[in-house]
Structures are given as structure tokens and as C-alpha cells.
Amino acid sequence: MAGMSSKRLQKELVKIQGTLPPGIALVSAExxxxxxxxxxxxxxxxxxxxxKYRLRFLFSPSYxxxxxxxxxxxxxxxxxxxxxHPHIYTNGIICLDLLDTQGWSPVHNVExxxxxxxxxxxxxxxxxxxxxxxxxxxxxxxxxxDINFLYHDPSV
Amino acid sequence: xxVTFTAYHAVAEWKxxxxxxxxxxxxxxxxxxEGTCAKCKYPGDxxxxxxxxxxxxxxxxxxxxxxxSEQSQGKCPMCRQPFKERVAQAPVEARxxxxxxxxxxxxxxxx
Lengths: 156, 111
Fold this sequence. Notes:
The structure holds two protein chains of two kinds.
Chain A: H1 2-18, E1 24-28, E2 34-39, E3 53-58, E4 69-73, H2 110-122, H3 133-139
Antiparallel strand pairs in A: 1-2, 2-3, 3-4
Chain B: E1 49-51, E2 57-59, H1 60-68, H2 92-98, H3 101-106
């Protein structure tokens, strides 16, 4: 299945380098294993429109049969924070159904995932971390996709 | 005037017979149905299309890989209903030629 991810990612890259929705930008795609995207969130006072949030996508050779690993990255230069959200842990791990093995579908792609995460932030009304954030960040050694998240509150 | 052909070059075009409102690309590999999945070299019979009961279409090899993966839970990637391959049907004219209308109505679809 080695050829699968590279052919599909090359197609996605061509499209992404053409057009992307407002507030979503490609930062780097130097290879077909790791890409980074920047998001900005319009019209939500929790996330100032000048701030950008960096997503890291990691693809396995069996993408898109297997979901990519998608997390927020923090950095100081340029300054990127982990956005505050009841489903985003301070280590950048995102609890979102379409990213885990139960909710993933191979029709999703980098653009559609970015849009989903952007709208998850745009619609957020609670400047809070998930319950148990400190404990999870201290103890988690699992890869994001292996974590069995409890979807505490599907309305968020 | 008499015209003599010394040579001719025939060109043919083909398309899959897919449901009318179907996409023209496979949602899994994002290649046109008339092209091949990521693994195949030659389009057409070597890389056929599967139509689901839900009318969603995929390259057979693409949907096969997905359904073999545990996370698919046997569901269509587009609509998440259980993916069932639709029984291929001959065009209406061809069926009518073989059955009288009553017979055709009574004959259950082959499974």
C-alpha cells in the first residue's frame, strides 16, 4: 500500500497550493509524511483574529485508509499557542471524532480536517481545557489515535 | 469522384455506466473513475468500479482496502451506511428482450 498515500497527498498538495478557504494556510509540506498548517479564527473573541494556531499532520503510508495524526504545535518563533478549547489538551492533542479510528473516513482530507477544526474553534463558547487536562498531559504516552476519548459533551 | 482509403485510425471513448448523480472521482484515492486506483497501471477492466447500495461508487481496490481495515466497520466512507455492493443490472432494453413484462416483474433480483 506504499504508493497509496503519496499519490493521494500529491493530489491534495496541488489543490492546496492553489486555493484554500480563508483563515487556513499551508506552512510546510516538505515531504509526504509531515505537513503543517496555520489556522486563524474569525469572529470569536476567545481567539483574537491576529493569532494563528499551528496544526501538524503526520501521515502513515496507508493514508487515507488510516487517519492522519493531527495535533496543535506550540512554538515561540513564530509565536503559536495551543488554542484553548474544551476538546484540546494543553499538549496539543485534539479530541475530535473524525480523527480517531471510530470516526475517520478516507473521504476526509487535509483541507476538510482543517475546516472542521477551524469551525470547532469558531463555534466554541467556553475558554476552558478538557476535564482532567493536567493529569492527561502529565501521564499520556499514547499516540493520539490510540487514545480512547470519552466524548464528554458532544455539543461543544 | 472516387475516394480510396489507404489507412484509417480509429478512436474510441469509454465511460463507466455509473448512477446519474455520481461523482466523477473516487472519494478514496481522488482519481477519476476512468483512471486507476493508486496500485493499478491500466484503467478499465483491470481496475473496476464498485457501486454501493447507497449509490456511492469507488474503485474496487480502494473500497476493498477500506473495508478490510478494522476502522471501516464495513461502512461506506461517504454516508456511513453498511456498504453493500449493488447487484449489477443489465440495461433495461436488454432485460426486456429476455422477459415478458409480467415475468420481469415476478423475477426476483438475482443476489
